[in-house]
Specification:
The chain is α+β, with helices and mostly antiparallel strands and 691 residues long. It is built from 24 helices and 17 strands. It starts with 9 loop residues before the first strand and ends in an 18-residue tail after the last helix. InterPro entries: FAR1_DNA_bnd_dom (IPR004330), FHY3/FAR1 (IPR031052), HTH_FAR1-11-like (IPR058778), MULE_transposase_dom (IPR018289), Znf_PMZ (IPR006564), Znf_SWIM (IPR007527).
């Protein structure tokens, strides 16, 4: 019986959001595995680069290194190699290796059981004597492989570059191409049409794939056999592993009553969708749940489940985990259940803004479940799709198109955006292109002209996307079942929440009173953003208008200008760039006007609670009664905040506090542990983020 593989590798979803099943997305990481172009480039580099011919006495760290080196040498010189013989000893294991030309030796004569000869097939073997023999020796406790014989004399014609790549040793169907071939085969495409489709998608000429049509045929036939053998086992494994996942959730709930999970079942009472979150995540959402990023870019190969994760960002700019979900499919109904469950987990709180990938089904679900929430598609979720969509049809004009398309992201006026979009579509003759139609239909979620002013808390940045990728890589291990996957998610989420921000000494750069005051209130992450805006504010000129408003321009550029409205009676300031509405940090234009108006401190309303130092130290509002510990805890909290603020003023203070505080807390902890453990009075001093 065939055994089921234990892999649960999660890969990025490749189906294109345009809805055409024949269209798929190639990610940057797939380039080396999935396209023919890198193979051709590698071959070209191998043929043009200098490579030392193997020689007797040449040393390798392992026999695998030697085989790889000889294989590269062979490809460069128009032949391939194979492993011939090896010798084993009890002391050294394999201690001799023979690598030979693929045409070495002669094909053995095969006979049928009745003595008749097999059908005479021509063999490529012709007794070629090209070879490289190796022997292993242990030198100072380290194993090394030495070349003991080498010959580069062939009795056959060597192949040119365009021929050698078609030798069996170099014909490989990489994983990304395998997925595409299986998808097309399942849709009923014949083999020759599949090959033609791959050539068109890669933008290469016929016959330039790194494999042949018969390789595709053999792969499809072999894979069908494996699928048929494993289908029943896979179905049983899915059911058992999902039940184990639910048991793990149940056990976690018993250990932590604030842990939350939910699931749905189909008409046959089989589990479809599962979602869960942790108490720390729910508490963190109370403070930092104003903006949420929902990542749904990965799918489990083994289980066929879509993996979605909710993320946020805390006051120190760190990525925080809110919850995750496993979905059976990608329909609006499944996404709606996921969103409903998330809100229920988060005690009914809907985010002010939600960031997602470009997915029509998810977009429809958000419209239905979060009607009052702003939906934003970060630019990085669009840019990585652009080469796949437009490079093949545009060819040499793609670079020009990419420049025009990038400029659209930065247009701030909707009328200008519409005008530039129409010009771009006309210039590149993309009027009937399905991908431009898709992008235009969701322009209100990605174009700066439409999303300007949506609160994003600095989450729509490349730096934030990299932190998301780092989290996902940490939980997608190669060999795991759903239960161990659940445990790994818990470990990663716990690490995110327990990571501590070290006390940082923050330098002042402008000597402006606004800067010094802001340093005592904002976290280092938020203060650095404000400080950068304050530095840039000095490069702008402000001209007062008759109505008291200001026109602010950069001193080197007169093209762009921003309108700043200052209302003195209410201590309010508004800028047309809407940076404060987007990030919660005042922009350089507004800061320039406030400096001119002799403000020494920013109005308190411009220090959002989510960016303040004390926001992560606040006591949960639900815990109105801390018992007899309330008074001393409030006193401790006040002292800790004051100490943190005072110590960050100079580096000397910061270093001194870190050194002395560690010693004092250690001493105090040891003394407390020596006191009696109970005195009959129970104290509740739990702390969590406040609303």
């Amino acid at each position: 019986m065939a055994s089921m593989p234990s892999k649960n590798i999660c890969i990025r979803r490749q189906q294109c959001p345009c809805g055409d099943w024949k269209c798929y997305i190639t990610y940057e990481g797939d380039a080396e595995e999935g396209s023919a172009a890198p193979e051709l480039v590698k071959a070209e580099k191998a043929s043009s680069g200098a490579m030392v011919t193997p020689y007797v006495g040449m040393v390798f760290k392992s026999d695998d290194d030697a085989f790889e080196y000889y294989g590269n040498f062979a490809r460069k010189n128009g032949f391939s190699i194979r492993k011939e013989r090896s010798r084993i000893s009890p002391q050294l294991g394999i201690y001799k290796r023979d690598f030979v030309c693929y045409r070495s030796g002669f094909a053995p004569v095969k006979k049928k059981p009745n003595g008749e000869h097999h059908r005479d097939r021509k063999s490529v073997r012709c007794g070629c004597d090209a070879k490289m023999y190796l022997s292993k020796e242990v030198v100072e406790g380290v194993s090394q492989w030495f070349v003991v014989q080498f010959s580069n004399v062939h009795n056959h014609e060597l192949l040119e570059d365009d021929q050698v790549r078609l030798l069996p040793a170099y014909r490989k169907i990489h994983e990304a191409d395998q997925e595409r071939i299986l998808l097309l085969s399942k849709a009923g495409f014949p083999i020759h049409r599949i090959v033609k489709m791959l050539e068109l998608e890669k933008g290469i000429q016929g016959g330039q794939l790194p494999f042949l049509e018969r390789d595709v045929r053999n792969f499809v036939q072999n894979r069908k056999k494996v699928v048929q053998e494993n289908e029943a086992l896979l179905s049983e494994k899915r059911e058992n592993d999902v039940l184990e996942l639910l048991e793990a959730c149940k056990a976690m709930k018993e250990a932590d009553d604030d842990f939350v999970y939910d699931f749905t079942v189909d008409a046959n009472d089989k589990v479809e969708n599962v979602a869960w979150s942790y108490s720390d995540s729910v508490n963190a959402n109370a403070m930092f749940g104003d903006v949420v990023y929902f990542d749904s870019s990965h799918r489990s190969v083994t289980y066929g489940l879509l993996f979605g994760v909710w993320f946020g960002i805390d006051s120190y700019g760190r990525t925080i985990f809110f919850g995750c979900v496993l979905l059976q499919d990608e329909t609006p109904q499944s996404f709606s259940w996921a969103l409903q469950t998330f809100v229920r987990f988060m005690r009914g709180r809907c985010p002010q803004t939600i960031l997602t990938d470009l997915d029509p089904g998810l977009r429809d679900a958000i419209r239905s479940e979060f009607p009052g929430t702003k939906h934003v598609i970060p630019h990085w979720n669009i840019l990585y799709k652009v080469p796949c969509w437009f490079s093949p049809p545009l060819g040499s004009r793609y670079t020009e198109f990419k420049s025009e398309f990038d400029a659209l992201f930065h247009i701030e006026n909707t009328e200008e955006f519409e005008h530039q979009w129409r010009q771009m579509i006309s210039l590149f003759e993309l009027g009937s292109d399905k991908h431009t139609d898709l992008l235009y239909s969701v322009r209100a979620s990605w174009a700066q002209a439409y999303v300007r002013g949506y609160f994003l808390a600095q989450m729509a940045t490349i730096a934030y996307s990299k932190s998301i990728d780092a989290f996902l890589k940490g939980i997608f291990t190669a060999h795991t079942c759903l239960r161990s996957f659940f445990e790994q998610v818990g470990i990663s989420a716990s690490f995110q929440h327990q990571a501590h921000q070290e006390t940082q000494y923050i330098h002042l750069k402008t000597c402006i009173p606004i800067e010094e005051h802001a340093r005592s209130i904002l976290t280092p992450f938020a203060f650095n953003a404000l400080q950068q805006e304050l530095l840039l504010a000095m490069q702008y000129a402000a001209s007062e208008m008759a109505n008291g408003s200001y026109i602010v321009r950069h001193f080197k550029s007169m093209d762009g200008e921003w309108l700043v409205i200052w209302l003195a009676e209410d201590d309010q300031i508004h800028c047309s760039c809407k940076e404060f509405e987007s990030s919660g940090i005042l922009c350089r234009h507004a800061l320039r006007v406030l400096v001119i108006k002799n403000y020494f401190q920013l109005p308190d309303k411009y220090f959002l609670g989510r960016w303040r130092r004390e926001c992560s130290l606040l006591v949960d509002d639900d815990q109105n009664n801390l018992g007899i510990g309330e008074e001393w805890f409030q006193e401790y909290q006040s002292l800790a905040e004051t100490l943190f603020q005072e110590s960050s003023i100079t580096k000397e203070r910061s270093d001194y506090v870190r050194k002395e505080l560690t010693k004092e807390l250690t001493r105090l902890l040891n003394e407390v542990r020596n006191l009696p453990e109970a005195d009959g009075v129970c104290m509740n001093t739990s702390v969590s983020p406040a609303n």
